[in-house]
Every structure is written in C-alpha cells, then in structure tokens.
Amino acid sequence: GQNIDQPTEMTATEGAIVQINCTYQTSGFNGLFWYQQHAGEAPTFLSYNVLDGLEEKGRFSSFLSRSKGYSYLLLKELQMKDSASYLCAVRGDNAGNNRKLIWGLGTSLAVNP
Amino acid sequence: DSGVTQTPKHLITATGQRVTLRCSPRSGDLSVYWYQQSLDQGLQFLIQYYNGEERAKGNILERFSAQQFPDLHSELNLSSLELGDSALYFCASSARGGSSTDTQYFGPGTRLTVL
Questions:
Q1: pLDDT tens-digit profile, chain B (115 residues)
Q2: Is residue B54 a contact partner of residue B72, using CB atoms and an 8 Å limit?
Q3: Considering A23, A40, B6, B17, which has the largest number of Cβ atoms within 10 A of its Cβ?
Q4: A79, A105, B12, B34, B70 from B38: Cα distances, Å
Q5: Do B43 and A91 touch (CB under 8 A)?
Q6: Taking the CB of residue B65, how many other CB atoms lie within 10 A of it?
Q7: Nearest-CA neighbor of A24 among A87, A76, A75?
Q8: Is-contact B76 B60, C-beta < 8 A?
Q9: Helices (H) and strands (E) in chain B, counts
C-alpha cells in the first residue's frame, strides 16, 4: 500500500532549529511537497522536491533522499508564528488515479518562548 | 491569499439536509480538488476535476457528488447529511492535471456543521 509517516507532535524553542521528518512508501515517485497549516486555516505551500538534495527557501529548507524514501523540513530561527501543523505529501505514479497526492497526517509543531 | 475562493465560509445545517459548496480556482488553473478535514484528522482527498472532466477519485461517499463547470468553477454537493459529515471542506486548484511539478493551492475552506 501507499503510506506516509510523520511524527505526530514536536516542541521547540523560539530561535532554535527544528527538523521534521517524513518517510514514504508509494507506488512510484513524482515529487514531494511540504505544506504549513495553522489551526482552522488552509494549508499553504512551502516547498517541492523531486531530485535528491536540499532546497533552501529563506528560513525553511527541505531535503529529499529518493533511495531512502525520506524527506525532512528544516525550520531555522523559529518564531512563535511557526507553531502550526506541517504536512508532507507525495505524488506517486503520474498516471490514472495515482496522480493524486498521498498526504501524511501532519506534524503539529509547538514553538515555546 | 492563494487566489482560490470558496463560499460559503461557514454553513450550519441539520441532519438529512443537502448543501452545496462552491469553489473558484486561481485564474488559469484547470484542475480543482476537493478535500475533507475532520477535527484532528488529516486531509482526506475526495475528488479531482480537470478542465470539466473527473480525473481522480478518493474516498468520496456516494452521498457526495461534484462537478466542474465550463467556467472552471466547481461545486461539491453533500446530501443526506449526517453528524459525521461535520468538517472543514477545502478546495484546491492547480495549473494542470497532476504532472510532477503541479502544485496545489488551497482555498480558505468551508466549515460545515451538521446538527
């Protein structure tokens, strides 16, 4: 079957660095997405990885290893507003019904002062 | 602001009733996706339309149906509502039909409460 695993909850301190991991098992691979979702609000797109390596975007970076079925989202210089749920989503085979995204349940990050 | 609009923002109704949720995609986007998110639950993919045609189907109940119109807006119809249908319903849009780099952008959601 197709599966995405993320830790349920994480806690970090303002100004620190946190790494949120995502492992996946899917039928094929055509890209991995990270989204941020504040409680009661819409998910917002953070990053996209399709090749191995690190993609940096300001305070946020995302890493992918296709051979290990593994990604992480790195948040630096944490701010209180980064308290949110972080969703990992994978696009599997790019054909038929498999082109839909497979979503993880999200990691709820709490940033403490 | 993602550019995706959804109406209404909130909807309160009774069990057994039928409601329609509306979504307008970002300008130029051809695909519309519908998701359900219950309290403390993950995003559940319901259905995708691409340029008016159904493209992919998720765990959509038979009581639910959707369509995409020629102007590319979409409607999700929920009928014979049950208490368990209370959830946030999100619409997302993307430029194409789901190619590798196709990114989904989400609307603000409709919060449905069934009493």
A1: 889 999 999 999 999 999 999 999 999 999 999 999 998 778 999 999 999 999 989 989 999 999 999 999 999 999 999 999 999 999 999 998 767 678 999 999 999 999 9
A2: no
A3: B6
A4: 27, 12, 15, 13, 30
A5: no
A6: 14
A7: A87
A8: no
A9: 0, 11
pLDDT tens string A57-103: 999 999 999 999 999 999 999 999 999 999 999 988 756 555 678 89
Nearest chain B residue to A104, by CA = B42
Radius of gyration of chain B (CA): 13
For the beta sheet containing B5-7, the strands, ordered from the edge strand earlier in sequence to the opposite edge, are B5-7, B19-24, B74-78, B64-68
Does the distance separating the beta carbons of B55 and A99 come in below 8 Å?
yes
Interchain pair A30, B100: CB under 8 A: yes
Q: Which of B56, B100, B106 is the closest to A97 by Cβ?
A: B56
Chain B interface, best mutation among A101, A102, A108, by max B CB count within 10 A: A101
Query: Which residue has 């979504």 as its token pair?
Result: B23
Interchain CB distance below 8 Å, A40 and B88:
yes
Rounded distance between C-alpha atoms, residue B43 and residue B41, angstroms: 7
